[in-house]
Automatic annotation (TrEMBL):
This is Receptor L-domain domain-containing protein. Residues 50-108, 245-322 form the Receptor L-domain domain. The keyword Signal applies. InterPro entries: Rcpt_L-dom, Rcpt_L-dom_sf, SPS2_domain. Residues 1-19 form the signal peptide. Keywords: Signal.
């Protein structure tokens, strides 16, 4: 008996030292949760009055707790150091983490939401910082992220590590908003390794003087072949239908023969959420993209900017375009 106790003592001691350098530097002892799974038994040990919690939270098919019980447990938690995994559940969102503002992980992975068949959105509506690899996949009813405040992918420590983002295999209706994408592309240490295939629809709007245009053409609606052959004389009117003076455009912009006179519509364009194709034109110069900084295409295996059969073209200047 004594021997058993000693072994147990040794193991728990060892575990603490091993797993918790990261925790002990960041949390009060009474705010550290050491259980492996969250269920109706272990939740009693959850430090639900702490605003900063250190824990590896695992919620899965064995979690016999309602969304209300989870909401109650997490209601004061604003900062979480550790990991968070929510998988194989029937919860409809992650709204039970609505107090959470900052999440930081020590190593790779860390923020994983997968195989939650009833989840329609993430719903972590106050999450601002997530210094963890973000993996959201195989949630078949998820149609939106809905993490409107998420904008910081850095650590409180100055140590720089790239954070990877995977968003895949969600509902066929899932779309990413241009507001979300704007934040993602401007976050230097976020690497978007897998992204959904479409942007959400919207109607053109102004926001503090910035004109965001929705150009209702996708690669699919244009039904372009993978090789953009010279057009057969049938004009798509894609470019003619594009609004002028847009600061951002969401959609596929196609410039064809006959559109040459109108190219200065794009003079103000800074961000294109989509693709730019210039084919079979008489253009001699591409000098109308002087403000273009980013082309954020979601079309897999397609170039974001494509020029073909512009036989007079001898000058291309896109001076502000940033790679990555
Ligand atoms: C989710 O719902 C399905 C179907 O009702 C059920 O079989 C499964 O056990 C539920 N899973 C959990 C984790 O409650
Ligand atoms: C990002 O969040 C961390 C942790 O809260 C904070 O220390 C850092 O200052 C934030 N960075 C920016 C750019 O807001
Ligand atoms: C920040 O990073 C340094 C170097 O990795 C480490 O020594 C230090 O403990 C970290 N600080 C915190 C608060 O984690
Ligand atoms: C946008 O609208 C088009 C046409 O109505 C529709 O086919 C498409 O699925 C919509 N996209 C999204 C992401 O809702
Ligand atoms: C896009 O075009 C389709 C068909 O041309 C139309 O049904 C749909 O309402 C348009 N969507 C928007 C957001 O304008």
């Amino acid at each position: 008996m004594l021997e058993n106790k000693l072994i147990f003592f040794f193991i728990s001691c060892f575990f603490k030292i091993d797993a918790s350098e990261f925790f002990s530097k960041r949390c009060e002892n009474n705010c550290i949760f050491t259980e492996e799974f969250l269920n109706s038994k272990t939740i009693k040990a959850f430090p639900s009055s702490c605003s900063t919690v250190c824990a590896d939270i695992k919620i899965d098919q064995n979690t016999d707790l309602s969304e209300e019980q989870l909401t109650e447990a997490f209601k004061t938690m604003k900062v979480l150091y550790g990991t968070l995994q929510v998988s194989n559940t029937n919860y409809t969102s992650g709204k039970f983490f609505k107090s959470l503002e900052v999440m930081e992980c020590e190593g790779i992975g860390g923020f994983t939401w997968s195989h939650n068949g009833e989840m329609t959105e993430m719903g972590l509506s106050n999450l601002i910082t997530c210094f963890c690899d973000i993996e959201i996949y195989s949630n078949s009813k998820m149609i939106r992220l809905n993490m409107p405040k998420l904008k910081n992918f850095s650590s409180s420590n100055s140590t720089i590590r790239q954070v990877e983002m995977i968003i895949s295999n969600l509902s066929p209706e899932f779309c990413i908003t241009i507001q979300e994408m704007q934040v993602f592309i401007s976050s230097k240490n976020l690497y978007m390794s897998r992204m959904p295939d479409k942007y959400c629809n919207f109607t053109t709007y102004f926001d503090s003087g910035v004109k965001h245009c929705f150009h209702n053409y996708t690669f699919k609606t244009l039904s372009l072949p993978s090789e953009y052959t010279p057009s057969n004389g049938l004009k798509t009117n894609n470019f003619k239908n594009l609004e002028s003076d847009c600061d951002t455009i969401c959609g596929v912009v196609l410039i064809e023969g006959g559109d040459e006179e109108m190219v200065h519509k794009l003079d103000k364009l800074q961000i294109l959420y989509g693709m730019l194709l210039i084919r079979v034109t008489e253009l001699t110069a591409v000098d109308f993209l002087s403000n273009l900084e980013y082309v954020a295409s979601l079309e897999a295996d397609q170039p974001a900017v494509y020029l073909k059969s512009n036989k007079n073209l001898n000058h291309i200047a896109i001076p502000r375009l940033k790679s990555n």
